[in-house]
């Protein structure tokens, strides 16, 4: 019988197969060690949470530099022979900030920076910055933002926007915004559109319109452009304020230097603001500029411009504007007609105003109480009580009901003239 002998190739293959066995065993050991480490970290975390819950983490008043929570973290993880995790630091920082024990936070951050080696998740520092700002510790929040790289973390737009949003939440925090912008430049962080949107909306909402203007000037100085949406937000906020000292046309010019092209809504907001500050002629100039830029003014634009011109006693210009909107094919609403009637009455052209009421009906625009009240007041002031009586009867025949003030005005005029019969 011949005994089978392995060839050298078979022997080498068999030896190689045997050598693989220790490698597989090592992987299993490493997997078991990782599992054990996770278990130890979990137990250490539970011990830390239990300590904080039972003792409420009362700090030593005479030793603020050594908070009990930090000591508990160190000892809990050391007792379980494992290193502290980012989750543990997040728990400690949130516990301290939620209980307003901000004096103990620097010690925790110092230990996190100097002792630990893991990359600190950005959300931990972002949450802490928000808590610091909420507690009114704005400078500490800014210092933390600037020191983010020390915690082996790269600051992103997430941390910048979180800080800006928190600072812009209060008037006190707004004072620190220029400092943050300056530090962003020093840190090489670019201020993007999302950050600018947070800034501008907050500044405008808080009524800090002058800060918004200063921000625009800053953007001009660094040759940065704004998108149309941001510019419209700024302009709308400025036009909506009761601060009548703003040079809105100058501000619009500054934005155009940044490449902003006003739209129909932007022009409308500017016209409204100019009328509110009794600058009807400037409002008319903006209306004409709209047409030059290729925009067809809406009926709302004409309403505001007419109101401003009549208030400014620019009656001739007001009539031209009224004729223009008719030429453009726009249908006047009741407010337009009432403004035109008011302008005629202020020029003592009362009969034309009464004729306008009849003209309104022909165009299927029914005069309302205000239409008649304007004319009645003009007749009363002009002493034309007979004409007022005729209009009163005509109005009653049409079934128009006036308010109490008008009911009292007409009899008062007749009584003043001694015509008791007409009054009653």
UniProtKB/TrEMBL annotation:
Superkingdom of origin: Eukaryota
Ranges occupied by PPR repeats = 121-155, 298-332, 333-367, 368-402
Matching entries from Gene3D superfamilies are given as: Tetratricopeptide repeat domain (1.25.40.10)
Pfam assignment, any one: PPR_2
The UniProt keyword set, sorted, is: Repeat
**InterPro entries per the UniProt record, alphabetical:** Mito_RNA_Proc_CCM1, PPR_rpt, TPR-like_helical_dom_sf
Which first-to-last residue range defines the signal peptide?
none
- A molecular-function term among this protein's GO annotations: mRNA binding
Q: Which GO terms describe its cellular component?
A: mitochondrion
One Gene Ontology term of the biological-process aspect is:
RNA processing
Query: What family, per the record?
Result: Belongs to the PPR family. P subfamily.
Which protein are we looking at? Answer: Pentatricopeptide repeat-containing protein
